[in-house]
Amino acid sequence: MNTDKHRSLSEIAAALRDGSLSAGSLTETALTAHAAHAEALGAYKHVDAVKTHAMASAADAAFAAGVDTGPLQGIPVSAKDLYVVKGFPTFAGTPSAVPEDWSGEGPVIEAVRGQLGVITGKTHTVEIAFGGIGTNPHWGTPRNPWDGDAHRVPGGSSSGAGVSLNEGSALVALGTDTAGSIRIPASMTGMAGMKNTHTRWPIDGIFPLSPSLDTPGVLARSVADVAFAFTALDPRITRGTPVASVRSRGSVGGLRVGVPEKFFWDDCSPGVAEGARAALADLEKAGATLIPFELEETAEAYSYFIKGGLAAAEAFAFLNDELPGVLKTLDPAVQQRMAEGETLPTAEYLHRVRRLVVLSRAAAARMADAVDVIAHPTVPITPPTLDEVSTVEGYRPRNLMALRNTCIANLLTCCAITMPVALDDAGMPVGLQFMAGPFEEAALLSAALAAEAVLGTGRERFGVAPMVA
């Protein structure tokens, strides 16, 4: 947002309240930014400027009347096209809009509306959110703004979310995360993004992929902004609780960071592991304690994931029952994986459910005894070009690698956050992921905020900006 997109959400919220900034002007700048980059970046499936301006006017009217409805009042927010938003059609990445009577607005959107947040539009998603690369042959794939020459993917499945933040059309982006769909696009586009513990935020009013794993959450331009949005929307936190309430650590001194050597660091693209390790070295110099720590439950959990996990079976069952027509028009890259769910025996599905519960409990217990967070690269690969993933043969291995590191938090019921820490050898953003046990969001944010104080935001650490800056 020109002058405003480099200010924190806390600073912008304060300016809205002291009258030095209006929701109307903030929204106008956001929509202008989108218009300037809509053709080049393609972040949104649907934008309605009239409705968006009306929301901004309502926020300004409340401010003028001395009414403060919550931290997000007047803040531009984009919503992934899985969220039902009244007045905005929901396609869920499919060729046709979902029937209007399918579902109403859920608690997350209700919370944004209740605080008079300004919804700027519906951002693109991978079809039914089933993919980590970010492609969609029906509506087009948003362009990663960090490569001005080649069309690189933005990460998925919340493929337009990180792009909307980069172009300045939103200050908070609502996404969902089933195997990394918030953290992958955040990492690939140089943003921060947080996966809450499954069930912490309700999934009502959101098109489902895998109800056993689906998790709403937020992307933002920094960890501090993620913390701001999280405390504004979290149903377990009293609305208006200051972000400072999660900053109990204050610094990284004494922070116990578990660093696994197996799995998460394997087969990284040039510059990815190096960038993440450099960030960890900086944290160690600032007082954090790096502890070798293997998450032994990873191997078994991942073995289920590469065979379809729970998502393929749950997605197929939902579509077959509720929207069978969608099955006939699926993207071939989605269809191939969906077939794994159609043929999965019930006994094997239930076995996976039971084993993941056992593994999650074991992992949480060991983490609680040994470390505060586990750290590793968020995404091990450079965002591929659209040409590289244009065939199923090119797509499948890259999609699996994009999801490999992030899916473990979902499978083991952890919460996790990614923050931008480096550029790889291709000049693309590298994310560092912190992972903590279930419902440890306050501790996770405290650690990540302390780390960001040492490492800086992505813009500060990279020293360069994407093509839309």
Structural features, described:
- The model has no long low-confidence stretch (mean pLDDT 95).
- The chain has a single domain (9-462), classed as Amidase signature (AS) domain (Amidase signature (AS) enzymes).
- Helix 2 runs antiparallel to helix 3 and helix 10 packs across helix 12 (332-342).
- With 469 residues, it is an alpha/beta fold.
- It has an eleven-stranded mixed sheet with strand order 1-3-2-4-6-5-10-11-9-7-8, with helices on both faces.
- It has helices at residues 9-18, 23-41, 49-64, 107-114, 161-167, 183-188, 223-233, 272-285, 298-305, 311-322, 324-327, 332-342, 346-370, 392-404, 407-411, 441-455, 458-462; strands at residues 44-46, 76-80, 118-123, 172-177, 192-195, 215-220, 256-259, 289-292, 373-377, 415-423, 429-436.
CATH class designation: Alpha Beta
What is the CATH third-level topology name?
Answer: Amidase signature (AS) enzymes
Shape: globular
According to DSSP, the number of beta strands is: 11
Helix and strand composition category? alpha/beta
Fourth-tier CATH superfamily name: Amidase signature (AS) domain
Architecture, CATH level 2?
Answer: Alpha-Beta Complex
